[in-house]
Amino acid sequence: MSDARELQPQVTPWTERFIDAIPVSPVKLAMAACGVLLAMFLVIEVVVGRHSEFLAGELAENIPREIRFAVILSLAIGYLVGASRALREATRRNIGALRPLLRPPREGEALVEDELPLKPDGARMGGIIGIAVALALPFVVDWGELYFFTSGYWIPETVWTWAALVTIGWMCGRLVHASLHGADLFSRLARSRLRVDLFDTRPLAPFVRQGMQTVLVWLGFIAVMALNLLNQRMGVVIAFNVLVALVVSVTTLVRPLWGIHEQLVDAKAHELDWVRETIREERQLLREGGEAGSAAAARMPGILAYEARVEGVREWPFDVPTLLRLTLYLALPLVSWIGGAFVERLLGAALD
Fold first, then answer.
1. Residue 54 and which of 4, 146, 203, 284 are 20 to 30 A apart at CA?
2. Taking the CB of residue 133, how many other CB atoms lie within 10 A of it?
3. Cβ distance 204 to 196 under 8 Å?
4. φ, ψ at 184 (rounded to 5°)
């Protein structure tokens, strides 16, 4: 009975079905989500009269910082909406591209399409853990005083920030689960159901793309959160985010490719065993001489050339362009931080 339940298709959450049904690209979806959130925040700021305080020069010292936090976290939520959908679409495309390489599933084995949706319990637990971490991180930061518990701290901007933290924690936790779920699925496909052509690794590109696209999703999130580095106290929070992103990115990139590596190593060793056994047989014919020896001498250069080609086969499906793209991805958070610092200086100069 339990095995039958495990083989039943997982139900995609209604939120993901709703987001996936919106007829725009993930980039436009992220921009739209950011725009809606920022518009809502702007309305709140106008309602509470922040624009009047700003024009009158009566804006409290901590308000610009709280506004900046609220805006950056709103951008992060919008980014996560688009990035989560982009990762789901990429996973489906990459699975589809691998279909010609997959051996038929064993009897009773779940289909790939049934394995794609997240397991509800695991995704929910990931979201809950994400919320707990997001709410705990501010207390790790050295604020000097725990003024979270004072009535004066709770202004519209801080309420928005904490609500955004809950949302980001939930979405990040689910995104971690989705990333690791995809890595596990591709890893199992690489180890059990994949046909590998030793001399043509181009069909294996979906494994590389899946890992690279997951890395890009997480580095993009870090790039948005890196805008908070304008406040030095946020260094601990950013460092934790970087650690999580690094662990998830390395896992999702290396785990599936390790299965490909093992397949290529095994296929290469099998082919080398065969060609070297052939060389031994041809060498024996050469020693015997005669017409058979002459025929063996004619075949030997081709066999040796084939052996050299097999030995030269790469055991990892990486190439130079892939490594260059990975390097560019790693530069995203740094570029974001530098850009944020530049904008901060411009705003400071304008306000002064």
1. 146
2. 16
3. yes
4. -65, -40
Q: Are 252 and 183 in contact (CB under 8 A)?
A: yes
Summarize pLDDT for 287-342 with one digit per residue, the tens. Answer: 877 777 788 888 888 889 988 898 888 888 776 676 677 777 666 666 665 655 55
Residue 252 to residue 92: CA distance in whole angstroms: 16
CA dist., res. 76 & res. 277, Å (int): 59
DSSP string, 47-104: HTTHHHHHHHT---TTHHHHHHHHHHHHHHHHHHHHHHHHHHHHHHHHHHHHGGGBPP
The answer to whether the pTM exceeds 0.85 is no
d(CA 165, CA 145): 20
Separation between Cα atoms, residue 204 and residue 192, nearest integer Å: 14
Contacts of 177 (CB under 8 A, 6+ apart): 118, 122, 123, 125, 126, 127
Among residues 275, 281, 267, 309, the alpha carbon closest in space to that of 101 is found at: 267
pLDDT in tens, 142-151: 554 556 667 6
- Distance separating the N- and C-terminal Cα atoms of the chain: 71
pLDDT tier, 351 (very low <50, low <70, confident <90, very high otherwise): very low
Task: List, as one string, the DSSP characters of 237-249.
Answer: HHHHHHHHHHHHH
